[in-house]
Design a protein that fits this description.
The strands form three sheets. The chain has a two-stranded antiparallel sheet. 23% of the residues lie in helices and 13% in strands. It has two domains: 6-69, no CATH class; 70-111, no CATH class. By secondary structure, the protein is α+β, with helices and mostly antiparallel strands.
């Protein structure tokens, strides 16, 4: 991801420091944000993440995805980039087909 994504507890704003504070039911302890909530030992995907009270957090549980601030903006930019790439590829493929008509106007930004 990019630097515009910030990780913090959605309930209290506590920011994890990269430490291994989260433990899985399999017994493995790790930094849950290094793996997007997936235990690297058993591959269990955790839907919720607990804020770490003894490190200054609130001990509350929240959806893991809610910890990522700025994720919506990042996803929107990625989807726009994919759409532009797909449109360019479609336009090129259409232009090379005999008898085909490009469905995009000449002033299209990707033309």
């Amino acid at each position: 991801m990019t630097e515009d994504i910030k990780i913090e507890c959605p309930k209290c704003g506590w920011e994890p420091d990269g430490g291994a504070y989260w433990s899985c039911t399999c017994g493995h302890v790790w930094d849950t944000f290094a793996t997007a909530g997936r235990c690297p030992a058993c591959n269990k995907q955790w839907k919720h993440t607990q804020c770490i009270g003894y490190k200054g957090g609130c001990n509350q549980f929240s959806l893991h995805l809610d910890w990522y601030k700025g994720l919506d903006g990042w996803l929107e930019r990625e989807l726009e980039a994919i759409e532009k790439t797909t449109n360019r590829q479609y336009a090129r493929a259409s232009a090379t087909m005999p008898g085909s008509v490009t469905p995009y106007p000449e002033e299209a930004p990707w033309a």
